[in-house]
Fold these 2 entries.
Entry 1:
Amino acid sequence: MVPEYGLWLPPDISTHGYQVDRLINVLHWFMALLFVGWGIFFTYCLFKFRARTGHRANYELPNAKISKWAEVAVAGFEVVLLFGLALPVWSQVKSDFPTDEDNPLRIRVIGEQFAWNFHYAGPDGIHGRTSPELMKADNLIGLDMSDPDAADDLVTNNWMHIPKNKKIVCDVSTKDVIHSFWIPVLRVKQDAIPGMSIPVWFEATEHGDKFQVACAQLCGNNHYTMKGDLTIYESEETFNEWYESMAGDGEDEEEEEE
Amino acid sequence: MSTDHHHNPGFIAKYVFSVDHKVIGIQYAVTALLFLFFGFCLMMMMRFQLAYPGEEIPVIGGLLAGALDPDTGGFLHNLAASLVSSDGFLLPEGYNVLGAMHGTIMVFLGVVPLAVGGFGNYVMPLQIGAPDMAFPKLNMASYWVFLAGGIVMLVSFFLPQGAAQSGWTSYPPLSVISPGQTMWLIGMVLLITSSLLGSVNFIVTIIHLRAEGLSFFRLPFFVWAQFVTAFLLLLAFPPLEAAGVLQLMDRVAGTSFFMPTGLVVANEVLNVAGEGNPLLWQHLFWFLAHPEVYVLILPALGIVAEVIANNTRKPLWGYRSMVYSTIFLGFMSFIVWAHHMFMTGMGETMSIFFQTTTMIISVPSVIILTALVISLWGSSIRFTVPMLFALSFLPMFAIGGLTGLPLGLAAADIHLHDTYYVIGHFHYVVAPGTLMALFAGIYYWYPKATGRKMNTMLGHMHFWGSFIFLNAVFMPMFFQGMAGVSRRLYDQTLYYHGDAVQSLTRMSSWGAWCLGIAQIPFIINFFASLWMGKKANDNPWEATTLEWSTPTPPPHGNFTTVPVVVCGPYEYSPPDKPDGFTPQMTANA
């Protein structure tokens, strides 16, 4: 699938994204309604009460009960927005993490100036140990190869691979400064904070290879180049085929962007 | 009270190292206008790179590239080297320098000093009938410390490391490891010190030096706005000053307040003590920077209220609820800061608290805006130049406020956080919003300060140009943000979603350059009117508040007779004088 980008929200290919979009759309209808209604009143006043001969300002203040009602209505709508639309999405995204039964694919996402590294655990499902001292140009995430869990691990640089229709959990961290892991079409955004590993989850509903991962937080001179490709496989099988083809070539495979 | 003001000081004591609040106010205002212009120029350079990525910047690019010649003097060479390549392109680090310094200069050296230092200093003591500020020397110190801070910021462009390039928010660890940040921190410490000196002075002056009969609920709304603003400055700025000193220590003294253990930069383990927390900075920074938003907007609301009351020729509707709302806004502004940090991994409980407070803070803003609009009902609107600016403030501020709603909700922030939507939102509050109000204030009080009126024709040109092009600059940003384009990108065309809306970026850029042209009538008007403007009498707008009962321009000590206040601030078209107004002051014979 090649996504179409236009003047409003980008396409959404995640299971939770429609709720984010719905919130944003409802809000903008509400804002447009308020602004247009308010604007009509404002423009009418400018015309009707313009200074002219024979017209005089009235010292008495209007008894405008309508303003109180308008304010109560606005406040009421905000309560509905907050508790009806906004908080449920946030709580789903933040707290309803996939359980072991969902058998999610866990990927460690490690930001650095100016690239995203993706650390896959492999068939054993356990990420090998990493340490800052081992981080070198040929071992960007400092994977400790003496750890048996690391044997089947795979690290990709600026190229994320995931299957569709599977829950993905990314543990977002960074080697150096603050980055922000941002996949517009999946409605995923999570700051990568030095010293912390923060999980975020999503599930893709479309496959294709014309997707991108971006950095949303200023991270230095080449912040603008900090983008990765995202390939979403049609099924777990095709994803596994890719994984095996990569893992077969070597234990710590680096991929370069095309 | 004013007996010691009547000796005759020399030129330097009168116009340079003056303790007169009016001279200090004008010093603040002129300095701030120059910084606003400078910050605007930085932005016009950035906008070229954004619109035409990788092309040589016209004129300036060539000039700067010329200075890269090793024969050129060191300072100019430093300036050029941090900004452009030898082909006259803007470098990515140059883009970051311009971005960081545009934000810093506009907020801390432009809008705040103009709104508080300029208008607050000049107008507030006049409006409360005081001969001067409570502590005139402290007031003078505030200006000179501010100027020193501004000079430090400017000088940093010419040093070998260049100016700061980590955004006006200066998030560590990036800010701690990036060049140029030390001067930024020193500059900020000076600027904050200046604000603190000013705010104490404002609070004491408003409490102690009000004229006889001027009770709190007879204060013009502008004074209330300055009063609440002063409290915000007093209470919100010290945490950032402390944080600034901590970050300075992280840079120069090897501490690790904001630096965690195990950082690896360019595949080398960073040699820091570690165990620090970068989120601590964000909390301290936003604890200042959210109240700071209200420091920018409240004086603007104050100016708009004065101009609207004067030009509608009737009292403000809901004056008291506006005052209560302002106080409530000030209070609430201290407990919403973390809505800038929803994407840092904040859990549900924290986010519910900050989303709720953010929704609550929108209510008093709505009340103030509604009161100002209803004030038009039953009035007789004079479309003077200041009134045009004040009226345009209302819809622009409404757009800025409304677009804050989605940003205040964590779930919508998943898409909108750190995109151009945020840039559009806060610029609508501060640029088409606050700046339009500040222009209204300049046109409104210029005759009082100089004795001459500004030209109406040039004023109209300035107004319509600014109004149209401000919207051309900032409206496209909402759509860019919707498309998902991150802010602070040197070149957005590398992204599918960025390339798709590149035409919007170009529109913004052309809007910005046209906006620059639209300021030319203002600059001419501002200077030429000093000599050629129509002579103004003491009360050219037929206004009620105390500043218009002084001679024009007001002498040292302000009032020729001790003012006594007999009524509220906006007695326009009262029943006994349906075509006139009742000034607040009667001369105490």
Note: Chain B touches chain A through 103 residues (CB under 8 Å).
Entry 2:
Amino acid sequence: MPSIFAPPRLSSRLLAVWRRNFLVWKKLALPSIVGNLADPVIYMLGLGYGLGMLVPEVEGVSYIAFLAGGTLCYSTMNAATFEALYSGFSRMHVQKTWEAIMNAPVALDDIVAAELVWAASKATLAGTAILGVIAAFGFAASPLALAAIPVVFLTGLCFAALGLIMTALAPSYDFFMYYFTLFITPMTMLSGVFFPQSQLPDAVLGVANQLPLAHAVALVRPLLLGQMPQQIGFHLAVLALITVLAFWLALALTRRRLLN
Amino acid sequence: MPLQIDGLVKRFGTGADAREVVRGIDLHLVPGECFALLGPNGAGKTTTLRCALGLTGASGGSIRLCGEPVPERAREARARVGVVPQLDSLDPDFTCAENLLIFAGYFGIPERDIRPRVPELLAFAGLEGKENARIQSLSGGMKRRLTLARALVNKPDLLILDEPTTGLDPQARHLIWERLRRLTAEGTTILLTTHFMDEAERLANRLAILDGGRILTQGSPREVIAEHIEPQVVEVFGEWNGGGTGAAAWAAEHAASLSKRCEISGETAFCYTDDAAPLLAHLAHQPGLRTLHRPANLEDVFLKLTGRELRD
């Protein structure tokens, strides 16, 4: 057997695995979309209009317009993370779906890659629906807002890859609570979702700027406001690099868990 | 050759913690035969299958599955193999028919080719009319049969079954056995693991008994029995009036002179002999003792070779 850190060897069979997950989602598409949509939209409208009364303008726009971009990013992060963690763990550990698939001419590499792309796809489906609501309320008027969709997909890939690392390590579902309380929730607070990062103390800002969610927000927020983001290439490159490194580690850990 | 394994070794862990689970196994399957791997828990049966399928790397030895070297071309080899795993891995989000359709997708079989075969596959598994049934509504036996149907979507040359009837009731076991016989009659090679001796005796053309990662013996069920054990068994149990308390006390005094070999397990003495008549005549005059006279079977060989201690 090659080293667990060997580069992935993928085949077109990963499409069949992606399709399996898509077909399950399709059966429950409406409740799934509503589930992914309701929470962020309630927060956005509640905080946006409620808090917006007290905060007339943030960075030159209304608070709810400011919040829209952050909401799209963190709900994408959540959708991808939940899929890679809870649903991925069900398929890998509880239902033995991966084990069954590996008896067919499909390699573990194909399965993990399909899970990555699927979680990002599901996050994009949810993100696009949220973008629709944002547009319906008039906070994504420019055609530039459509460019947020590929950014949402990349953000989904990035958080799916990070989530798959946790899935590869998890002894049970309870383990994921640490990931949320120690990583996801603090990141949401530090990445400029609810308030500008400029409000953070300098010592924290240095770290906060590196967070993947911060890069997603730096791209999506201007796009929704009809502006070209600054340093597009840099933010995209960081998200892509984290995706590649996290996927590589997730694959190695999954190989160690299932192929030894 | 459907499967050729030479000198297979599998170690888990490294250094001082290393455990050798498979210690030099050779297996050569002949096309169209049913071959059974027998062994107590932890003997290395499942690990051998996982190595053969390329799902875990061997530490030594060579494997060819359907003519392809494993693990190098395991994916190509698995395209011609069907697997019924030990644990249920049916997809609970899909119906019976969808389970077959989706699984065929993993083999790259287009839906237009597999859809017409679904009724035939379900009928083979005794699941006629269950196309739209949910997996949760199936009994354990039905799930196992659907897993068997799922393993046949690619019309495999070799079917591998890991403990196919564990946990099933007698009716379900007989149905599975009948279907497996039908498959071998049609030319499919079968490799199965089991710890049911009657299953191996009924189904297998050849078998191997494994323990501690080694093959202790292999051959046809009759050959294995003839080679390792006396043809007659008399089990003796109950109260003995000749002193002492039970069959063990009786055996200590008489078994050696009346049988070739005698094993005590719990309250029962197992006496192995070529001719049971003198022993039975003696026992007829021991009113407290009860006896069961039967021909030797695979279980006797198995217990002789692997011992009577519990394995967990």
Note: The longest helix of chain A spans residues 63-94.
